[in-house]
Amino acid sequence: MCGVPSIAISLNWKKDETKDNDFKDAAGLCLPLIHAALADIEKGTFLKGCLLNVGVPSSPAANKGFKLTKQSIYSPAQSWQAVSTSRPQPAAHFMGMHQSLGIQLAQLGKDASAAGAARRGNTQRKTVEVESVAAAGKQQAREVVKKSFRAEFIEKLHKDLDDDIDVRALENGFISVTPLNVHGHVEPELEAPASDWLSAAVAVSEEKEAPAT
């Protein structure tokens, strides 16, 4: 990414299905890619002009192998909803009064994976709250009326997807490997080199795991 060799790895976390030890399994499955990347970086032959976005299925131990994929496509829709003006205290003030909650920050890794998995669903709702302030009635009274609104963003996954899309590959049990450029999509000329690199990385791993004869 921008001249820096990059690999992003995530686990397709599913509530009540994925277990804590699946993180360790997911990391182990990605080691062949990491080792191959480090070796190629030292030789100056690692893929240029893209990063590798690796997705591990929710049950890593039951994976069907690696698969080169394309980035899924989402289209956002926006709507505004009026909300109550009675809102809780800011998070910073709350955390300042309850410093012991900092211990629970260790859970953020799990929460981040859960959030990433949720994004791969058909929809995701993001909210942003804003406040509208206007004068009501006669100007002399200068009565101020405050109304709060929430902007809701819903991302819908395009339906006409083939099996080479990362979301579909993950749902089918494959480890998805998606080459992306800085704009979040892959250039056609990068697909062949990325495919060759992935095949070579997997082949080296299989040779190391093969029993000696």
Automatic annotation (TrEMBL):
SUPFAM superfamilies in alphabetical order: SurE-like
Any one Pfam family match given in the protein's UniProt record, by short name: SurE
Record's keyword terms, sorted: Hydrolase, Metal-binding
InterPro entries for the chain: SurE, SurE-like_Pase/nucleotidase, SurE-like_sf
Every Survival protein SurE-like phosphatase/nucleotidase domain range: 1-72
Sample GO molecular function, one term: nucleotidase activity
Family: Belongs to the SurE nucleotidase family.
PANTHER family attached to this UniProt entry: 5'-NUCLEOTIDASE SURE, OS01G0709400 PROTEIN
Protein name: Survival protein SurE-like phosphatase/nucleotidase domain-containing protein
Organism, scientific name: Aegilops tauschii subsp. strangulata (Goatgrass)
